[in-house]
From TrEMBL:
This is Sec-independent protein translocase protein TatA. It comes from Jejudonia soesokkakensis. The gene is tatA. Forms a complex with TatC. InterPro entries: TatA/B/E, TatA/E. It is a single-pass membrane protein. Keywords: Cell membrane, Membrane, Protein transport, Translocation, Transmembrane, Transmembrane helix, Transport. It comes from the Bacteria. Part of the twin-arginine translocation (Tat) system that transports large folded proteins containing a characteristic twin-arginine motif in their signal peptide across membranes. TatA could form the protein-conducting channel of the Tat system. The chain crosses the membrane at residues 6-26. Belongs to the TatA/E family. It is found in: Cell membrane.
């Protein structure tokens, strides 16, 4: 395995550690707000990419 991809190998212990660190940094009350913001950002990205795809299809007609 290349050293380039070694940091990308994330196991269950690493995920648990990340979750604990996030809880300590942001607290339990702030996390739902962060997730809502992340969800709305992903939705906006999907909508924008779909609009771009629709424009490409219409321009080919």
């Amino acid at each position: 395995m290349s050293l380039l991809f070694l940091p990308l190998a994330i196991g269950p212990w690493q995920i648990a550690l990340i979750v604990v660190v996030v809880l300590l940094l942001f607290g339990g009350r702030k996390i739902p707000e962060l997730m809502r913001g992340l969800g709305s950002g992903i939705k906006e990205f999907k909508d924008a990419s779909k609009e771009d795809e629709d424009e490409k299809i219409e321009s080919k007609k």
